[in-house]
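Changelog note: in this version the structure field was regenerated for every chain. One regenerated record is shown below for reference.
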Amino acid sequence: GAGPLHTQFDSKGHGYTCLFLASAIAKFTLGEDVVTTDEEPFTLIETIPVHYNIGHLATAEGDTVSPDGKYLISLNKWSVDRFFPPGPLLPQNLQLVDISGGEKPMQLLYDMALGVGEPHYSQTIKAGLVAERIRKWLQEPPSVQVRLPMDISIR
């Protein structure tokens, strides 16, 4: 696939898809039944360049029925010569993009090298959902004893 690869969604009726050949993220509106802004349905709103050769995308709960539309993570395939040490040890990178909207365009917030294999699908969820489940698990631990490699304290 040289065209759009993976699509994620926000809570305002926008879709975000990666454009591999353009190394960019495209933001577009969905149909009139889901757009919560005054934008025209099925319209390209904007694009933002990423570096380099974008693969998968992830927004917080972006492929669920109630996505959280604040941030998007771009999982990029190549970042050669962008991070020290240069070379093949850090060939991929992740980029955090602000998609909270309003009058401002999408904005690149953070760029991070990733020294493992090509980044594929990921899921992001709100920390509160995870914390609640961990809290329940700590109150009623499973019958099998699990030793955690770190000290976990949840307030």
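Spot check on this record: The first strand starts at residue 4 and ends at 9. The CA atoms of residues 17 and 27 lie 7 Å apart.
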